[in-house]
Task: inverse folding
């Protein structure tokens, strides 16, 4: 009834929020390099979603903006020190991503950038020195900017080909250093943010919004399936997973209409796992596509590729749960988006308005295992907070400890229920640039980084109180949560 003996405790990050070194080591420009910091009263809900016009303006007026994801927290130069801190906490796993334009600067090169490949060799070697297993995401939002501008990102099958080429390169290179891989991070973000997830602009497409976004999704499904097949051919011991933002849904009331709405919106979330675990378009999407006049352009053999390229395990990000109220006029895209319009009166919210629902984690893990009977890895779970740095360099964050304690307790309950969960990577172990808001002040880490929203600070790393708490949790394999 305890956590599995070899349970993978650790933390998760992404290259575009952590790494920096955007113009070093032969790296090319990424789509995330053009996402600027904006003050809260100016950014709205979609600060990560750029239009074609915004991109072109920012390219010609760069001096008017600060682009924090170009700099991250400079892991590029500090990775040895940061990994040493992760090892001090006792990490068994470190989820990270490879920056695609660090390997292929524009995406279309015939040969990869050796300096970029060597950087990740060095990072993996440093992790293994401390017995930390790397879990690597192939694409965590930073798409080569050239592919976005030239081909409209994943709307083009040329980008799919470039992605498979890139994936094959790193899978072959690191096949003996990395056992666990993920293809796309939060692949369902495409419905709300096609630029972030796919490097694509709707204004440059001939399709309407629904056809555009589901075509992007199809092309990524094919890309994922091709990469899974490639990985298994290179080394059958490698395990390849999918990753979605898991959105557990609750009906607003016992009214059967609300219950139906919850099921309908759940299907739009499950869809992104069904495609990668079951390898086929699920029955419920046929009517949705028909009634919304959605037509997917497929190439010969696509359906066979999807069927052959199913993943070995499921991974999720889990931050919150949603409430659904019957609304027959709710737009299909809005119903599947990552924005929760109805607040749950039974839950408290974070500083950024996200509902805190530890029991929902147990619920969603059971629902996923009921549906798929596949091993599950929790690739993200965390809370953004406003931390205070005391004069003596200490950071007291009992609110963060309370959050993780409650979620790990429910994770344990799910494992006792019989759910096969083999790892937990909290987001993120060290303060990094927020993806959604490009802030540093939205702090997730057990390690404080002295850097503000405008890139000012010493970059010094400081241990928060939660650092020592998580170290105790890992050392006791989840038994000591006090």
Result:
């Amino acid at each position: 009834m305890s956590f599995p003996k070899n349970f993978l405790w650790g933390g998760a990050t992404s290259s575009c929020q952590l790494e920096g070194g955007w113009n070093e080591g032969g790296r090319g420009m990424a789509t995330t390099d053009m996402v600027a910091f904006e003050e809260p009263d100016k950014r709205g809900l979609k600060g990560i979603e750029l239009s074609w016009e915004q991109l072109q303006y920012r390219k010609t007026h760069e001096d008017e903006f600060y682009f924090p994801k170009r700099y991250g927290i400079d892991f590029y130069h500090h990775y040895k020190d940061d990994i040493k801190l992760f090892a001090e906490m006792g990490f068994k796993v470190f989820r990270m991503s490879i920056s695609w334009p660090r390997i292929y600067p524009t995406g279309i090169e015939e040969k990869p950038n050796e300096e970029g490949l060597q950087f990740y060799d060095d990072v993996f070697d440093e992790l293994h020195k401390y017995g930390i297993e790397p879990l690597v995401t192939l694409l965590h939002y930073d798409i080569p900017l050239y592919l976005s501008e030239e081909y409209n990102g994943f709307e083009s099958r040329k980008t799919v080909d470039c992605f498979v080429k890139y994936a094959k390169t790193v899978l072959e290179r690191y096949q003996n250093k990395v056992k666990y891989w993920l293809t796309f991070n939060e692949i369902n973000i495409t419905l709300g943010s096609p630029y972030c997830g796919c490097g694509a602009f709707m204004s440059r497409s001939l399709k309407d919004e629904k056809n555009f976004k589901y075509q992007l999704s199809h092309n990524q499904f094919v890309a994922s399936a091709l990469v899974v097949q490639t990985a298994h051919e290179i080394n059958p011991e490698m395990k390849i997973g999918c990753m979605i933002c898991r959105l557990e849904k609750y009906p607003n009331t016992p009214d059967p209409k609300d219950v139906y709405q919850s099921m309908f919106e759940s299907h739009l979330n499950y869809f992104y796992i069904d495609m990668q675990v079951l390898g086929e378009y699920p029955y419920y999407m046929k009517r949705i596509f028909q009634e919304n006049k959605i037509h997917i352009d497929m190439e010969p053999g696509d359906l066979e590729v999807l069927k052959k390229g199913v993943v070995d395990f499921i991974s999720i990000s889990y931050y919150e749960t949603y409430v659904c109220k019957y609304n027959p006029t709710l737009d299909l895209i809005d119903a599947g988006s990552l924005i929760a319009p109805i607040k749950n009166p039974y839950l408290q919210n974070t500083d950024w308005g996200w509902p805190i629902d530890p029991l929902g984690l147990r619920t969603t893990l059971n629902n996923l295992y009921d549906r798929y009977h596949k091993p599950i890895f929790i690739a993200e779970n965390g809370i953004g907070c406003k931390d205070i740095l005391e004069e003596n360099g200490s950071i007291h964050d009992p609110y963060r400890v309370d959050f993780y304690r409650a979620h790990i307790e429910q994770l344990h309950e799910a494992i006792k229920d019989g759910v096969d969960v083999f790892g937990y990577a909290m987001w993120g172990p060290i303060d990094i640039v927020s993806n959604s808001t490009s802030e540093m002040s939205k702090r997730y880490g057990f390690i404080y980084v002295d850097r503000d929203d405008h890139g000012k600070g010493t970059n010094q790393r400081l241990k928060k109180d939660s650092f020592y708490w998580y170290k105790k949790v890992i050392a006791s394999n989840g038994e000591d949560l006090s």
Q: What stands out?
A: The mean pLDDT is 96. The longest strand covers residues 133-139. The first helix runs from residue 15 to 18.
